[in-house]
Amino acid sequence: MAHRADAKSMLDDRGYEGELIRGQNPALLMEKAVRDRITESYYWKEQCFGLNAATLCDRAVEVAFIGGTYGQQKPTPFLCLAFKLLQLTPEREIILEYLHDEDFKYLRALAAFYVRLTFDPPDIYKVLEPLLSDYRKLKRRNNNGFFLTTMDQFIDDLLTKDRVCATSLWKMPTRQQLEDLELLDERVSPLGEEINEIDADDSMNGNGARNGDDEDNGDKDDVEALS
Question: Would the CA dihedral through 123, 81, 35, 6 be positive or negative?
Fold first, then answer.
């Protein structure tokens, strides 16, 4: 009961003096129904109580899958830790350190989820888009069981969908809108150079084929002239 009371006190705006995210207590960024399921769960009470930014990292590296809720709307450890991060609101440098840790992919996924919930739109694109080149497999759990996805797909979901991991994401401007407002530079695809090389090869092969056709036609003309 004490754990639940402590969680509830974090959700009470009266006397809240912590950092605000988009004008409100960060812990309120998740819907009430989801918050209630989290604070009532065994994992929250036993594994999340008393965590700070350092000990949460230790707990996050033990996570074995991403997801929101499963079964009878039971919250995953991933979702519980995301909610704990919202309560803690670590410094930006700590979140980026989580994000850039290549050894623990679920820690990276957790940090990416937090970034989507709390960062400003231009920073969300700047921070998350480089992860679209991370193709490692992730295990994901929902009401139908486990299935495989990839980090880049998860990042794409965060950038394009309105709901991920049983959480409604606030609607942010599109990349094109931010580019039009000059808040973002045009994105350069990491595959850009490779695509240009393929186009150049195709162009050379096309010219070669046309030149070959011209030579064949010339030989044919010469034969007809000789006859």
Answer: negative
